[in-house]
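Allow me, if you will, to draw on your knowledge of protein folds for a short while. I have a record of one protein: its chain in single-letter code and its fold written as discrete structure tokens. Kindly check, if you would, that the fold set down in the tokens agrees with what the sequence suggests. Thank you for your consideration; the sequence and its tokens are set out here:
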Amino acid sequence: MESFNGIRVLLVDDEPHILQFLELGLRNEGFDVKTAFDGESALAAVHSYQPHVIILDVMMPGTDGLTVCRRLKEEEADIAIIMLTAKDEIDDRVKGLLIGADDYMAKPFSFEELLARIQARLRNQFPSLLGEIRLGPFVIDDRKKEIAFRGEALGLSPTEYKLLKLLVTKHGTVLSKTNILNIIWNYDFGGEDNIVEVYIRSLREKLGDKEHRIIRTLRGAGYRVDLP
């Protein structure tokens, strides 16, 4: 079972019974939950509460959910936004995604589905908040700083752990050597970048990836992990 302690969720909806239902369910799962009834109070709560996830209804009096979403994305707020839309309002879903919403759900919805979507956003945007992340054949335990592959712990150095975690959690995305250097080594690298190649080679050895099917090299672009 996932541990959601310390993960902050802001619920924004002008229907009290929906807020009460979601707040009770999420608190029972271990989340820290705050509620807001309209767009302006939601924006104020974001700045003071700094949630990781916001469940945001589109249709609200005054400042609506689409406006809230756009303003937060313009501010580059580090928040996963899940929009709630009426069942038949396809235009609202499209508008929400175009202005930066990370996901949407149509009312009515099941609590189990909402929980699954929250978990998906956390794994994608805040993987370090979850103690254990399962992605394909990988299990990342951020508390122990360990990664298992097909059930076997890999025995990684701290830098190998950070690099493989980056590649796996960003699976499907090509990461250039420059990006990797900036993220893992925390500086702009102006010289030889073969240090990345050295660590990639070491990771491939520990994964038994002789044919480079797990960590793929895209010539001139960088590296990418593809998960089944």
Summary: Residues 111-125 form the longest helix (15 residues).
